[in-house]
Amino acid sequence: MSKAEAKEAAAAQQNVFMRAIKLLGDIFVPIIPAIVASGLLLGIMNALNFMSSNGYIALDTDNFVYKIADLVSGTSFSFLQILIGYSAATAFGANPYLGAVIGIALTNLAASGTGVTGVFGILLCLASPVQYVVMFAVAAAVSFVISFALYKDEK
Length: 155
Description:
The protein is mostly helical. The chain has one domain. 73% of the residues lie in helices and 5% in strands. It is built from eight helices and two strands, in the order αααααααββα. A two-stranded antiparallel ribbon has the order 1-2. β1 and β2 form a beta hairpin. The longest helix is centred in the C-terminal third of the chain and has 26 residues. It is elongated. It starts with a helix and ends with a helix.
């Protein structure tokens, strides 16, 4: 019995709840390093900006290194739907590039810059940061569900 066959046999004996937890782990564990690195850099950049704006340090915001660090600091959070779509499609056994394309479409909806966006005809007026968070969470959930549908469609 190979290692893969042993894993499949052990997974078949688990209850539905344990299989769902394993699936969520398979989707989100590969994304954790990107989120952690982006979050740490985002915290450092916010601390530097706070200290600069309150006169504790002199910070040149036109510096090349500062601009690159500022750009990279929020990338994982800005494109979370793409990461989740790719990872979910991989975990489900679907084409990961189709999952990424679904994430891109949802990111495009969420970051349209018009202040009004929608998912499947549901319009959201993005006036507060809480509404942005809700929109990105909805888009990530939709990416997860569509990746599962792609998996079912390919089977």
